[in-house]
Amino acid sequence: MKHPSLSCLYSREETFMHATESATSPSGAANQPELHRAIIDCDIHHFTGTKAIKSYLPLALADLLSAYGANLPSGTPNGGPACSVKDLATLQENHLNPNHVKYGILTGESYGMQGVGNSHYAAAICSAINDHTKEQWLSQDNRLKGSIFVTKQAPQLAVKEIDRLAGSGIWAQVIFSNGAHLPFGNSFYYPIYEACVRHNLPVMIHAGMEGGGMNSPTTGAGYVTHLAEWKASQTQAMMAHLASLIFEGTFETFPELRIVLNEGGAFWLAPYLWRLDLDWKSLRVQTPWVKQLPSEYFRKHFRVTSPSLEKTPDEAIFHQYMNSIHAHDTLMYCSNYPYHEVDAPLASLPSIDETLQERILYRNAAELYKL
């Protein structure tokens, strides 16, 4: 079996075989029905490597990049090559057109600039990625919307970048890597949230960069060794961010703020929210500013995505967990294109009725992103 970090080296035939195998539902049913309705794909990884963005950097930084390389931390323990789609025509031919994608949210590839202590260098990389995305992708196909890359480790620079770009209608959200040096409920990030609310932009927390650069270790026990451990540990960081955002009172300060949890699974949320509700009831005297149950904040302020959706032992359990996370309101479709986990739109959603399909594949994202 090939190492997952080498998935983008698979041949086209192997990739097709994987997609076919992954189209089996938790109950064992294959041959997913063909999808004809339009969908919104909230996670398409387009190429934003240093070769692509070099011409968008200030000349001095472009020269340093040529001489010394990007000098950005990796988002995975074992590194691994980038597998993002390299050109728009390939994306259109292989994904947007055949899968009836009415809107696709571009999420880039490397988030290394969000683990760099040199915030001004990181801000220049973010601006170059955003300008490249705007010129080479968003302006070429009006189905595409962008994610604004920012230096979350330097909020004042992040706000400047959001204010520079927002308002054009081509940007769907601001994007954070899951790896961070502080949990996201910390007031350190409040200037970014104020800018997001002012411009009606959600924040996507995208799995990656845990333990990278200046970010905190991959787990509470320390750093992990293997890619399988790292992928499993991403949930831990998302748990910390979710609890922090709720218990720090972020949504009381910013009642219009919306957060998207992407590529970290979803079904873990059910027992975790049960635990948070229980602890809030017994310890609420310590957080009097938290006015609602954590599960109520989740349902109003959070959205979660379908990549890495946990495979349940049987279909009955699948539907129980879908109900427990309020999937009708909170779950959005993401293909994670073109990474090896990508499924056909219905492959990870077995035996759900058409109303729920419509919510997950289109309506929830349309409401969040105002599409």
UniProtKB/TrEMBL annotation:
Residue ranges occupied by any Amidohydrolase-related domain in the UniProt entry: 109-371
GO molecular-function term, one example from the UniProt record: carboxy-lyase activity
GO cellular component terms, A-Z: cytoplasm
Record bears the keyword Lyase: yes
Keyword tags: Lyase
Record-level GO BP terms: secondary metabolic process
Pfam families for this protein: Amidohydro_2
Listed name of the protein: Amidohydrolase-related domain-containing protein
Organism: Paenibacillus hemerocallicola
